């Protein structure tokens, strides 16, 4: 089995992460992609406004769910606590999957310095035209000769260029008159989760939500496989509203509100009966 390992802080996971993961799944023909949020990144300090490890894990799980059945999230580094060293993670995964082919996915900067910290099989994301072929070929040859490491380049035909720190600022500024919509950089369920948890300075009043925020929150409460059904229901509600001469926006709001109320009721039943929410 061919397994990709995609680690990071994911604070928050954004469309750039998601596009890179999806491209790796397809270009490398991976059987599984394991997304692993770190507990404490060893190369930088977490921002003061950072989400908790558990919140980052839950956001990464939403992203993995949107990537399909071959993607999953692991709490390996969060359970281990302390600094999250990739070498320890790869060693643990080799013990779990001794007969499988493991590929460590990373960006250009890490790929060009990976010899300084570990020597696994590596797949590097080429994010832009600035990632020159000559640099990659030279580094690949060095890693092969020095560490007998296999390398490959995952070319990203489309990538959302955004730094997580800039995205956190955008999320906070949405409530203070900012003119950039952070939702354009986020998988809608992740955006909804951020609003629900009031992360990164967001200040959504859950009693008085805009249609955009209401929709995002409703999407964050269900599995990705349910989203086509929800979107179809929204489209039908709007079409019926137009046919009967009712305000389409009110019909759309009522549809989202209905899903949220149904989810809340099922969530309460799950807690009362100690039944996993997804089973209900």
Average pLDDT: 81
Task: Please mark out the parts with pLDDT under 50 across 5 or more consecutive residues, or reply none.
Answer: none
Helix content range of the residues, please? 40-55%
The end-to-end distance, rounded to whole angstroms, is: 32 Å
Going by helix content, strand content and strand pairing, the class is: alpha/beta
Main sheet overview: 6 strands, parallel
Order of helices and strands: EHEHEHHEHEHEHHHHH
Name the shape in a single word. Answer: elongated
Strand tally, please?
A: 6
Q: Would you kindly provide a written description of the structure presented here, covering whatever features stand out?
A:
By secondary structure, the chain is an alpha/beta fold. It has helices spanning 15-27, 53-67, 76-80, 86-96, 108-111, 133-147, 164-173, 188-197, 211-220, 227-244, 248-273, and strands at residues 2-8, 32-37, 71-73, 101-106, 122-126, 151-155. It has a six-stranded parallel β-sheet, with helices on both faces. Helix 9 (211-220) runs parallel beside helix 11 and helix 10 runs antiparallel to helix 11. It is elongated and about 70 Å long. The mean pLDDT is 81.
What key phrases describe this protein's structure?
about 280 residues; alpha/beta; six-stranded parallel beta sheet; 11 helices; about 10% strand
